[in-house]
Amino acid sequence: MDMPTAPLGVDAAGLLAGRLSADDYQRNFADAHPPLTRAQAVIEAERCYYCYDAPCTAACPTGIDVPTFIQRIVQDNLRGAAQTILEANVLGGLCARVCPTEMLCEQACVRSVHEGKPVEIGLLQRHATDAYFANPGAPLFTRAAPTGRRVAVVGAGPAGLSAAHRLAVLGHAVVLYDARPRLGGLNEYGLATYKTTGGFARKEIEWLLSIGGIEVRAGQALGRNFTLQALVESHDAVFLGLGLSGVNALGIAEPALEGVRDAVDFIAELRQAAHPAEVAVGRQVVVIGGGMTAVDAAVQARKLGAREVHIVYRRGPADMGASAYEQHWAQGNGVHIHHWATPRDLLTEDGRLRGVCFTRTRAEGERLGETGETFVLPADMVLKAIGQRCEAECAAPALELRAGRILTDAEGRTSLARVWAGGDCRHGGRDLTVEAVEHGKQAALSIDRALSA
Fold first, then answer.
1. Are 367 and 376 in contact (CB under 8 A)?
2. 118 and which of 106, 142, 357, 377 could share a cystine (Cβ 3.0–4.6 Å)?
3. What angle do CA 448, 450, 453 make, to 5 degrees?
4. What CA–CA distance (Å, rounded) separates 300 from 289?
5. In order of start, what are the domains of the chain with their CATH numbers?
6. pLDDT (0 to 100) of residue 305
7. Within 13 Å and on the Cβ side, how many CA atoms surround 155?
């Protein structure tokens, strides 16, 4: 709608690239959490109690034997530590950087319960895997004898990569399809640049593919270049790791305006840019949503030179998909977080975005109501981060879905014979990278059992 009041004072420059100096970009997009030194790693590892039936291992979706890999760090056996990690989680290097360890293994750490400060498991995991990838030496994995079976894996995100690797190790021939030109899914296109510096995600994928037996077909999408039925007919089994490719709408009028875009596209543009100076950002940015995508988009907008960045979420802080740690991280980077508000109108002036009008919300039992109170945030850029949806219904209509995602059993088997699914497209998950890795691993083991029967 047009501005009902005086101009909001949005920076007239609008969206611009190259707002900062080269030094600023280098500093802002350096590694967010620098790795431990050898001495720091040993000191931290020695805090571990090496618990029997360790709660940290039970809290890890992939079941990494945390006490064992930490003990091997103390013993200066970093290759052995990395092997313990990667045998359970083949993307253990990336997960060490992006996992919400504060909600998983570290929350369960006995030190956390007794002292309020857990062992820094995530940093120790990174220490071990970084050391291995810097000097991998002999392969950790070797392929079993060829089984003569051929499996299609659709989607080269964490779930698909995990499934493809495990299937290849077990001796099956794998054809890995992905709609995008580069493999990695969320790891390549959807994570904040400062979390995966130095091209680590690509290096890890190159290592994963070095097992052999995995044929990559990039730029090939289910429903566009091939059908699920065709895959089932030409392969012995199919694994779907489709992720969440659709983006939810705001639920209000969304005129075509410069600066109004999906947060996932903004993050992907930054990840694929040769340099952050190439990416345009507004001076006053509003991010609508409360998950990790919202936090990553907001913080990166600040690091690109936005003067003000606001996250607006419809419920309270405890309901946000982003952890308390990530919320504090955003606030520590100058992002303002507003709770209990939902967008009502995008405000324009002379055809340009000038702000967003929000309505205050409140909990009414399990439902969300509106108070009638409104407020306006000036904005020349709005990033929509209100959740993504699975598009399996369009790509594979024969699958049974629940709440828009693929329904499976505990092993990932779908309603269709010889078709498994995992990752964010699977109903009942938590949309975590580490959980997607476990879905892929368990589905691969289930496929192997089915093909060996």
1. no
2. 106
3. 105
4. 15
5. 22-30+248-387 (3.50.50.60), 38-134 (1.10.1060.10), 150-245+390-452 (3.50.50.60)
6. 97
7. 33
Convert the pLDDT of each residue in 415-437 to its tens digit: 999 999 999 999 998 889 999 99
**E-state strands within 259-340:** 260-262, 284-288, 308-312, 335-338
Query: Quick one: tokens of 410?
Result: 């505990």
CA 176 to chain centre: 20
Number of C-beta neighbours around residue 181 at 10 A: 9
* Mean pLDDT of the region 271-295: 96
Reported confidence tier of residue 13, pLDDT bands at 50, 70, 90: low
**Helices 121-134 and 66-74 sit at what angle, rounded to 10 degrees?**
60
Model confidence, pTM: 0.93
Q: Which of 276, 307, 313 is nearest to 292 (CA)?
A: 313
- State what percent of residues in the chain have pLDDT above 70: 97
Instruction: Tell me the C-alpha to C-alpha distance, in Å, between residue 327 and each of 5, 240, 310, 359.
Output: 32, 32, 12, 22
Tens-digit pLDDT profile for residues 47-90: 999 999 999 999 999 999 999 999 999 999 999 999 999 999 99
DSSP H helices, 210-351, are: 228-234, 263-272, 292-303, 324-332
User: Cβ atoms within 10 A of the Cβ of 246, count?
Assistant: 15
